[in-house]
Every structure is written in structure tokens, then in C-alpha cells.
Specification:
two-stranded parallel ribbon; single chain; 2 domains; 126 residues; mainly alpha
Length: 126
């Protein structure tokens, strides 16, 4: 979970400040959060920030949405940036309009390992 969140967070411009903001907000959810997967909360913070912050500042129990973390599956399908990621070259050749719109809408830059892969493999064409 943590690597998935951190790789995605680092794709944003102000990732250091946002990480601090996430930790402070996430702490407010202690003992009042019910979720299946912590990535649901991470995605909520990353992609629905204003709603996430409002919920964190309330006192009621939060039941997270199990569909929120599907964005990570979408990003993984086109190359996520994990170390030694399986089938990375194949994934990078995939043309996904949905993934492209998601990445553009949320202003995500390429993951460092994806950029490094392209630099190391100069013959690789997307």
C-alpha cells in the first residue's frame, strides 16, 4: 500500500507538502474509520481532496468507498512505476483513453521509474 500511495503522490507537483497534509488529516480519522483497504483513503485524499478534508474535520464515522482505489488499477495497467514492474514495456505501449484523461485531469507527471525506463531504453517507443 505505502509504495503505491507514495509513487502516485510523487507524481504530483507539491508532493512533500501534500504528504504532510495527508498525515495530519489521516490522524484525525483514527478510531472512526471503517475501510477495507487503506488505499481507498489514499485515493480519496489524492483525487477528492476537498471532500476528504471536510470529512476529516467532522466527528462521525467514515465508511470509505471501496471503488475509490480503482484508480490505482487504472494507473497500473499503463505502467505504474514499481521497481522491477512486470511487463512494463508492454504496459507502456497500451493506449488507454481513460488512463490518459485521468492522468491529465489530475495533472500527474510520469513516475520516476517510468521516465528512467524510457531514458535507459532509447529504442523504446510508446
Amino acid at each position: 500500500m505505502s509504495e503505491t500511495f507514495l509513487i502516485t503522490l510523487k507524481r504530483k507537483r507539491q508532493y512533500k507538502e501534500e504528504f504532510k497534509e495527508f498525515l495530519l488529516a489521516r490522524e484525525k480519522l483514527q478510531e472512526r474509520l471503517i475501510c477495507y483497504d487503506e488505499l481507498e483513503i489514499c485515493a480519496y485524499f489524492l483525487f477528492e481532496r476537498s471532500d476528504f478534508m471536510k470529512v476529516c474535520n467532522r466527528q462521525e464515522i467514515l465508511f470509505s468507498d471501496p471503488t475509490l482505489n480503482l484508480c490505482f488499477d487504472l494507473l497500473y495497467s499503463v505502467g505504474f512505476g514499481f521497481k522491477d514492474e512486470l511487463d512494463l514495456e508492454k504496459k507502456l505501449k497500451i493506449r488507454s483513453i481513460e488512463a490518459a484523461h485521468f492522468i491529465k485531469y489530475h495533472k500527474l507527471k510520469p513516475a520516476d521509474r517510468i521516465s528512467n525506463f524510457g531514458a535507459k531504453n532509447k529504442n523504446f517507443k510508446r
